[in-house]
Amino acid sequence: MQLSPGVLLALVLGVAVIVALKVRSHRKRMAALAAQWQAFQQHRNAGRGDLLQITRVYQRGRRGSKAVVTWCDTGRQQDAWFWNWHVPAGAYLLVNASSGYGPHTHNPNVLYVQPGQVQAWVPAQAARAAQRVG
To answer: How far is the C-alpha of 92 from the C-alpha of 94, rounded, in Å?
Structure first.
């Protein structure tokens, strides 16, 4: 079975439109993520918390998440408990939180983060998008 030139042209144009829409959608998504990163950096520059990144989430419970965080200014890692939030791995957060004793692990230095102590956050993709865009 051979396609007529008109049908073949319609198929090629249809594929081209789909590809163009996908590229446009991707660019818009990257621009939005880069804008999120810029707004996040404005919060950081205004001194609205200490910057950390979620290195690894190792437990998700009904009342929150246990994770390893990395403090971006020092590179120091610390166990953390996020009350009432399942934090996404890789996310960047500005927090005003305090450390205390972790009774389940007998860790004297667990960062406890209440929802109101997170001043701003962005997914890891936002930082990558900002690097690509700008």
So the answer is: 7
